[in-house]
Design goal:
By secondary structure, the protein is mainly α. It has one domain. The chain has six helices and two strands. The protein has a two-stranded antiparallel sheet. A hairpin with a 5-residue loop joins β1 (about 100) and β2. It is globular and about 55 Å long.
Length: about 140
């Protein structure tokens, strides 16, 4: 009986993936089989990052006008404070990988390694936000 209840919950959850939510986006980020055909992850581009995926999945998440406009649209769509949406979708020093690059003849600079950001990393930030909000 317990197994049947768990199966019903999982079925209900999977049906809820049709509706825009942070839970559904986190799940989709971790399961590329849920991505639209042709979608290729690239964190450095708003149309191919988590916001772009949300836009393609639900076509209700505004995506365009640059990173700030996309974050603002994601904040409104998911009822997030702008600062939280920015930290999740654009990244923050707390969780993003960095690399050192040459910046001239003798200097170097540290920059975000956009190529190293995975969908799972963004999903982790969504899950962290949801867990903190539930406490």
């Amino acid at each position: 009986m317990l197994k049947t209840h768990a199966m019903k919950s999982e079925t209900a959850f999977l049906q809820d993936l049709d509706k825009p939510s942070l839970h559904a986006l986190s799940y989709a980020l971790r399961h590329p089989d849920t991505w639209p055909a042709g979608f290729v992850w690239d964190f450095s581009n708003c149309t191919t990052c988590a916001m772009g995926l949300a836009h393609q999945l639900w076509n209700q998440i505004p995506n365009g006008g640059g990173a700030k406009a996309s974050v603002s649209g994601a904040a409104r769509s998911f009822a997030l404070p702008y600062a939280e949406a920015k930290a999740i979708f654009l990244g923050s020093a707390e969780w993003m990988p960095f690399k050192t690059m040459k910046a001239g003849w003798l200097r170097t600079k540290t920059v975000c390694d956009m190529d190293a950001v995975t969908p799972e990393m963004v999903a982790d930030q969504i899950d962290k936000y949801l867990a903190e909000r539930a406490e």
